[in-house]
Design a protein that fits this description.
single chain, alpha/beta, Aminopeptidase, 8 helices, about 25% strand, globular, hydrolase activity, acting on ester bonds, zinc ion binding
């Protein structure tokens, strides 16, 4: 296997847990460096790029569509059908969970970022992996004068009334001040945007909080095993990402895509350790299902819908005690 094919098959290398025969190299257009299992750095040969982009996928190992999208983009870069005009860091977050088609092995990595991994009593491979990913991102973003973007791609556990949507972390600066980025997310095919109101342990919150990056958790369809994804659902997403890394800017066609709907988080349901705790929604409830005021949505802590209508997101009764079992949203009215 020659050098280019070796590293180009980044997904296979990640799944088998081996390093490539060469850990760094170049094409006619960019340098590449394998930084570790599931971590690949690419930088253009010519001109000083003004933009640094992180694209991560596979933080949850059963969410495979984004991983396949990243591999397709990488194939285009190595075949020279996609140009590179930015610094690019590609991350497959949880290699062991990807190998086993599990959401996680011991604990949810997307609750550990921002140093929260240090509070875990007994270190695990996943807490150590979060530490590594934080340090890798620090080295990638620190001392960079240009723009910073982080797209953390996921898929949802259950069906959704919006097939593609984004979750944006809370930050001191209103997101409206970066309308160009919000518009780009619409061009990327996101039908809805959800705005958090409190800090989280997510990867996108870490990059936004630590580096002031334009960060978004992109939810693309429903979790399925490798080979079962209909990637045509995400053509607009892949096209927009390709344009982003090819031009090094948030170019967009104003003639396409109406703006995404905007939702604000108004409540969280946290799973208590009481034996009577129960999430009072059916297992087949879609994300963004609306509930009218007064509806009781959890037992023991007695969470009720307080607004005229609230929409449920990420309902999951099986999370660990103390973690979020669901979000409740209010639709922003223009």
């Amino acid at each position: 296997m020659n050098q280019q094919i070796d590293i180009q098959d980044f997904l296979s290398l990640t799944l088998i847990g081996e390093q490539p025969s060469c850990r760094k190299g170049h094409t006619n257009y960019f340098n590449w460096q394998w930084l570790g299992v599931g971590i690949l750095l690419l930088e253009p040969l010519h001109d000083r790029p003004l933009l640094s982009v992180v694209i991560s996928a596979g933080i949850h190992g059963n969410e495979t569509a984004p991983v396949e999208i990243v591999q397709q983009i990488l194939n285009g870069l190595f075949s020279n059908t996609i140009t590179l005009s930015c610094r690019l860091l590609l991350i497959f977050g949880n290699p062991q969970a990807l190998r086993e088609n599990k959401r996680y092995i011991h604990a949810d990595m997307n609750r550990m970022f921002g140093g929260r991994w240090q509070k875990i009593l007994h270190a695990t491979d996943e807490s150590r992996r979060v530490d590594l990913l934080e340090q890798t991102m620090i080295q990638f973003f620190d001392k960079q004068d240009g723009g910073k973007i982080h797209l953390d791609m996921h898929t949802a556990i259950r069906g959704s009334h919006h097939i593609r949507f984004g979750v944006l972390p809370v930050r001191p600066i209103p997101w409206e001040q970066d309308q160009k980025f919000l518009n780009w997310l619409g061009v990327a095919g996101l039908e809805a945007l959800v705005f958090h109101q409190s800090p989280l342990g997510s990867f996108s919150h870490f990059s936004c909080d630590r580096f002031n990056a334009l960060s978004c958790t992109m939810e693309l369809g429903k979790a399925l095993p490798f080979g079962q994804n209909n990637l045509t659902q995400f053509t607009s997403t892949q096209k927009a990402i390709t344009q982003l890394i090819s031009t090094g800017s948030l170019l967009q066609d104003d003639a396409i895509h109406s703006p995404p709907l905007q939702y604000k988080v108004v409540q969280q349901i946290i799973r208590s350790n009481h034996q009577s705790f129960q999430l009072l929604v059916s297992p087949d409830t879609f994300n963004f299902t609306p509930f009218p005021k007064g509806t009781r949505l959890s037992q023991h802590d007695d969470t009720f819908v307080q607004k005229e209508t609230e929409y449920i997101l990420f309902p999951n009764p099986n999370v660990a005690v103390g973690l979020r079992a669901a979000l409740l949203l209010e639709l922003h009215k223009n």
